[in-house]
Amino acid sequence: MSLLDPTISFYVMHEKSWKFGGGEIYDQHGNKVGSMKRKLLSMRAEIQLYDPDDTLLCTINKKLLSARPIYDVKLPDDTLIGRAKKPLISFRGSIDMYDADDQQIYKAQGGVTKWNFRITDPEDKKKVYAEIKKADKWRDVFAKGFSLKDRYVIHIEDMDADRLMLLAYAVIIDNVYHDK
């Protein structure tokens, strides 16, 4: 089964240790459908998403010179397919996703704890594409030094939404708000 299989209704991104390597991605049935690999010594925080057969699907990396966190999402041939930008001022967690033509396509809005995010249409907040939830959120409060593993659950609300962009969004949210 491919990471981008249209029948997958939710993903579990389970890091082995994202800060130092990568992790696996599972579907709603617990089947491994992909993986993440982080380049260890990278100022650009480069992370790659793979199918189970190790076919590279996309690369996510941080722009170096920017007043705010900006991440590019590129295909294996280096074609830009998306760019995520954190607003300069945001009291609650928020990250906007743009397409290659710099048109906003998604808005991720979180709560003050930045554990749960709702991915919506930027013009219509009632149009929900997905929800991203940090499954081990209490670990951040009570046992920060205990484990370096994070786990995110991505529930696909709109089965026609671009899965690659939503998976990249979850990785970017973790980088911006939880991997400091």
Describe it for me?
It is a single chain. The protein is built from two helices and twelve strands; from the N terminus they run βββββββββββαβα. It has helices spanning 137-142, 163-177, and strands at 10-15, 22-26, 32-38, 47-50, 56-62, 70-74, 80-85, 94-98, 104-110, 116-120, 128-134, 151-156. The protein starts with 9 loop residues before the first strand and ends with a helix. The model is unreliable at 138-148 (pLDDT under 50).
How much strand?
A: 35-45%
Apparent shape: globular
Supply the CATH superfamily name: LURP1-related
Number of helices: 2
* Average pLDDT level: 85
How many structurally independent domains?
Answer: 1
Look at the helices and sheets and give the structural class.
mainly beta
Q: What is the name of the CATH class?
A: Mainly Beta
**Helix share, percent:** 10-25%
Q: What is the first-to-last residue Cα distance? A: 33 Å
Q: Give the SSE order as H and E letters.
A: EEEEEEEEEEEHEH
Just name the CATH architecture: Beta Barrel
The largest pleated sheet is described as: 12 strands, antiparallel, barrel
What is the strand tally? 12
CATH topology: Porin
Unreliable runs, pLDDT <50, ≥5 residues? 138-148
Which value, in Å, is the CA radius of gyration?
15 Å
As laid out across the biggest beta sheet, the strand order is 1-2-3-4-5-6-7-8-9-10-11-12
